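User: Look at the shape:
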Amino acid sequence: MIIPELKKTFIDNIQNVFGWRTKRKIVVIESDDWGSIRMPSKEVHELLIKAGVRVDEEPYNKYDSLESEDDLTNLLEVLSAFKDKNGNSPVITANCVMVNPDFEKIRASDFQEYHYELFTETFKRYPKHANSFKLLQEGITKKLIYPQFHGREHVNVNRWMKALKENLKETRLAFDLGLFGISTDNEKGLRSNYLAGLDYDFEEEKINLKLIVEEGLNLFEQIYGFRSVSFIAPSNTWSSWLEPVLYDSGVRYLKGSFIQSEPAHSPGKIKYKRRYHYLGQINNHQQYYLVRSCYFEPSLNENFDWVNYCLHGIDNAFRWHKPASISTHRLNFIGFIDQSNRDRNLPLFKTLFSEMLRRWPDIEFMTSAQLGDLISQPKSI
């Protein structure tokens, strides 16, 4: 239809109108959710369907899971096959969570206390993941993977624990099977999003969110050996009062889409305020916003031409003299639940790289942190 197409064209262009520019053909690949559990196994997926929870209708619950050895091996192979004009391979800025819920300890507390485990410990409990962290480290060493901070966990602790205490049916069933991330569609009208880890419903929750952010960033350094300088909030939802907390913990670059969802709740009413951002925008704490402009999400719609859609976004960014920041979630590269998902999408990923290098041989692959450093230089071009 003409109206939706015009709206899409308007959005594609308006997000590139303002902000930092460069004549360089820079490509950044941003990928969220690494380290977080989603669907634990194919068996759990089938049990939920039998129980009437239609997880087969939502791509994240249908395909996404903790990254396995095979998932990482295949992804690193694709990335290493390409080089830019400087001899650098495409590098995925992997936005990671540090922990997952410890289901057994939560159950042992009779759902009165929240407990977590490091994602490196979660790897040890999954059947094809014993060497997953080693492969992540290999990807870092080869400059194919660059981890950055996505949150301590990808679950809203207060909402989830409240629902567990109240014995909300589908939430408790999911818990018993080792997951938290079922869609709100399965409990329509009963709850808010569990995945928006930094959302809140009451003012008194703010203190705990501050501690969660600080602890998460310290855990990031503990695991990876360096501080994360960038951050993207789970579900792109965070409050401006958290930005100085992030700054004090070393975060200089705030990432997401050009529309931020900021909680603006009042008693008895869930409401969000839109905050608009552009590339290179600076807040009061001298933090820079990095805005995504292109999308490669083939698992979300298998019948859509994501390669050409992403190439169009790249072309649009370059025409506006902007870097192309590609959003692609971990979901697209996971085959642990359903191998056909990975087998279908990785060839598309290869085609995307082949075609962008053919069209723009002077492309430069960067991490989001490298882009942020370039933008924050006094005389960057």
